[in-house]
Amino acid sequence: MNSNGLIALLMTGTNVKTNNIQSMIRLLIPLCAVLLALAIGAVMLLSLGANPVSGYATMFGAAFGSLEGFSETTIKSIPLLLVGVGICIAFRANVINIGGEGQMVIGALLSTTVALAFPDIPSLMLIPMVLLAGAMGGAAWGAIAGALKAWFNVSEILSTIMLNIVAVQFMNFLLRGPMMDPAEVARGTGIPQTMRLSPNADLPILIEGMRMHLGVVIALLVAIGAYFLLWRTSMGFRLRAVGYNPDASRYAGISVPKNVTAALAFSGAMAGIAGAILVFGSESHRMVTDGSSTGFTGSAGFNGIVVALLAGLHPLWSIPSALLFGGMLVGANALQRSAQVPSALIIALNGLIVVFVVSSEYFRQRMQPTIRVDLEEKTAEETGGQNG
């Protein structure tokens, strides 16, 4: 083998090693951020006179230590996973979707409208219809921000946040007016909720006696489908190419505006499905709110961003990431009861995790170029030694 061939072989090996190490870093740094946040939370527990070891054992035991607890964890994880997968798609195209809350709301409203309009359709048809309606509603809401970004260079961060507000006000108008339960109108109580939706649209329970329903399977299939979309299809290649280098993509004949719009539409579709599942997988089987987006979504539209960052923006790794955050939401109540700590501590602990995970992205980006340079220098030394 000549020297050029040897260099090419060594450089190929370097690229493989670099990619493997960078993949490990993308997973380990956010995980370390979570552990650091939990360590600070332990100090806060100690300051309140609680035992952090037993407290955390109670928290994670309540979430994962029993079938019932795990069932509750999966229910909490569904919207987090779906929104997180959507965030992964958007970020791969180098656009930031902060509009998960609004996209969930619009997806839920459109799916609820379908269920109200066709209550007598059999379940085998109605359930796919409401899920598809949810996806379409979220996709349309996301595509608005995508089009503004692509053709008018409007910041997608600002537009998605503002669209969240529009979606909430639209929800309040409908649930306090045209879509309000007629029984509420007759009683004069005015609770902003729809009537009990058709049982044919209820998501089937997977385990008798538990709350785990078909939404768990749907969320897993969506995560797997997003992985294949991004890494096994030409559309996914175009989305990632636009994210890596829009100028080179444009030169290669890829439409940057169309792919930016498509990325936010796909991301919105995932959130829209999450909104539909929140309605048709709920115990009340109706859409209800307290007048705010979080009253319906439980802040899943924002927490899904953290899920995606913890997963290294990878759809499949978003599955355990969503389970972790869902488990913490379930276990937080048990921690509060067992350790007798104020609810503000649980909110602070969740906030710490969000801050540390989001901040870890900075260190991850700083470390990756250093690793690549070190490996290339080492390869160059090995190549020089071989030539000598």
- The DSSP helix count reads 15
Rg of Cα set = 23 Å
What structural category characterises the helix and strand content? mainly alpha
Secondary structure: helix percent? over 70%
β-sheet strand percentage: under 5%
Q: What is the CATH fold-level name of the largest domain?
A: ABC transporter involved in vitamin B12 uptake, BtuC
Task: Return the CATH architecture of the largest domain.
Answer: Orthogonal Bundle
**Overall mean pLDDT score?**
88
The total strand number stands at 0
Coarse shape = globular
What would CATH call the class of the largest domain?
Mainly Alpha
How many discrete domains? Answer: 2
Unreliable residue stretches: 2-12
SSE pattern, N- to C-terminal: HHHHHHHHHHHHHHH
Largest sheet: none
How is the quaternary structure best described? single chain
Distance between the termini: 15 Å
What does this protein look like?
- This protein has helices at 3-47, 52-64, 67-92, 100-117, 123-152, 156-175, 182-187, 215-232, 234-244, 246-251, 256-280, 294-297, 300-310, 318-339, 343-387.
- The chain has 388 residues and is mainly alpha-helical.
- It has two domains: 26-50 and 343-372, no CATH class; 68-339, ABC transporter involved in vitamin B12 uptake, BtuC (Orthogonal Bundle).
- It is globular and about 60 Å long.
- 43% of the residues are buried.
Properties at a glance:
mainly alpha; ABC transporter involved in vitamin B12 uptake, BtuC; 15 helices; globular
